[in-house]
Structure prediction request, 311 residues.
Amino acid sequence: MKRILIIFLALSLALALCGCGGSAEPEEKGLQIVTTVFPAYDFARQIGGGRVQVTLLLPPGAESHSFEPTAKDMVRIQAADLFFCNGGESEAWAEELLESGENIRSLAMLACVDALEEEVKEGMQESAGEEEEDGPEYDEHVWTSPINAIRICEALCGELCALDPEGESEYRANLAGYRAQLEALDQSFREIVANGRFHTVVFADRFPVRYFVEEYGLNYFAAFPGCAEDTEPSAKTVAFLIDRVREEGLPAVFTIEFSNGKMADEICEDTGCAKLLFHSCHNISADELKDGASYLELMRRNADALKEALG
Prediction:
């Protein structure tokens, strides 16, 4: 209740400020889409093409699980034609806003797929003092499966066609072209897994790619669940992962974007394996954004890394 009160106060203040004198921002053309995380932002760009203007709320390099919107962000959401979010516990503020009675058209990626519950697997270090949840907590990183990405883009295309019927043929053409690229990406992952010597991956980090390994039938071990708040592992966790690398004879361990990589370095030093990056795509750096990074580009890099890790 406290959080939603803060949201209303911030929104009211921002709207009041916008209504005061002063120069107004120039009117933007096309459908206005506000997104919370990078995959939603990129999917909206790909399917919407030149008929949409897309805003990414999450600043480059920021942690999505701790993001809180500013008053200006709230105004953007309220004024948007579509609020395209991820959904889930880390975006509880968005759920509260959407349930507040505000007239906001929205689409959540988590609602577009068959959601999986967060999994704590053998050897994982659970957060200290973690509170019991009233219901199941779902893994939010649904886009890491290219098949899920297709489902999400199909749902997005439907929303855009409903909002802008005149652009339906363009949206559907964009979807067809993008789906073909996602299907090719999916096929490349299937071939890598089928031809790999190993079928286990080790993440010396959080594990935000459960949808990915479930899609391609890979076994995994990791230091933390995908949405864990902790990032400093216990000696027991590190020792467990070292044992897994040795027993499986794995040639590499993974870290994710924005990780300090210290745990992976320790495991590599002890076992002689290589350290590789698997980009979860939840956010990108300022340089990557400037250079026009895309979901497809990042996932193709992941394909190269996976090929090395599976031998």
Summary: The radius of gyration is 21 Å. The first helix runs from residue 2 to 19. The chain is about 45% helix and 10% strand. Confidence is low (pLDDT under 50) at residues 4-27.
